[in-house]
Amino acid sequence: MARSASVDPLSFANFRPGTDSIIGKYDDSKMDKAGERLSEKNIYANPNDFRLCYWTGMGIWVALRGNKLKGNNRLFLDKGVKEGTCASKYCEQVSTLVSPYKQHIAVHMDSTRFNPYGLRKGAATHAVSGTTAPPSIPSIARRGEWSIGSVLDVYWHFGSVGDQYLGRILAGLNPLVPDFDILPPHWQIENPLADADVIEGMELTYGKWMMEEHAQFVPVLLRLFACIVFHSEALIRTMVQYPGHDFNKLSILHRRQLLQRLHQKVTIEATNGLVATGIPPHIEHSRQLTCLLSRMDGVLNVLANQNS
After folding, report:
1. How do residues 242-273 score in pLDDT, each as one tens digit?
2. 3-state SS string over the chain?
3. Which one of 18, 28, 29, 57 has the fewest CB atoms closer than 10 angstroms to its CB?
């Protein structure tokens, strides 16, 4: 949920681990070149579908970039390449991706108005229209770097809880179901970097040089790698289904025994004090109602058996 022009400057330094999220923050924006009023964005994993999982996608992107990241802190822009190149390429790829579906788009809007510059607005629309209890407007405005007036911009600058709720929705998690508070795939072991299998897998996927050259990014890489391991079966199915797919370039997917051992060390259950953030109160109410209905069904079954 950002301007396409914000892609080019993104570097390893723009990301750090949150409680159960990865936090990203731009250095500047179109309306704030000094970066004084920019907000942190909580980016969540989606354990239900790797195609909607930011963490999996980012982990794969970094792995496939490989040597292009040597001596280069930019995640998307190659060394020596003109600023704006990534934004232009991103827009072209998005347009190419949706072009076969123009008939479906035309049902909802004028297809000539559909362009990558509207994705930020589309994400905001999705967040407020998918539930009767959406994230607050200030949280959405802060996420999109939209101004809500000089006074409110000053006094409502920080809204981490609202952004966390919004971040979960933008990750494709359903705010209408009890498992909206699902945790990201993460390591069950307390210190993953002390585990031989994790180290082997990380070095195989990203290279030992990356872990040394971009050491500040390793805590984020650990989270991304856990998602790749968690979704590995789906990734392998895609790799087999589409010969020549870029997933074939992921060395870890060809090491089945190592993957099996790693998979046993990844979980979405609460471990090591990890808690879900950005959870609205109606989720707990929904869970309690689900439990209550289940118990009532049990009581009715008992009564029905006694009367039969």
Report:
1. 999 999 999 999 999 999 999 999 999 998 88
2. CCCHHHCCCCEHHHEEECCCCEEECCCCECCECCCCCCCCEEECCCCCCHHHCHHHHHHHHHHHHHHHHCCCCECCCCCCCCCCHHHHHHHHHHHHHHHHHHHHHHHHCCHHHCCHHHHHHHHHHHHHHCCCCCCCHHHHHHHCCCCCCHHHHHHCCCCHHHHHHHHHHHCCCCCCCHHHHCCCCEECCCCHHHCHHHHHHHHHHHCHHHHHHCHHHHHHHHHHHHHHHHCHHHHHHHHHHCCCCHHHHCHHHHCHHHHHHHHCCEECCCCCCCCCCCCCHHHHHHHHHHHHHHHHHHHHHHHHHHHC
3. 28
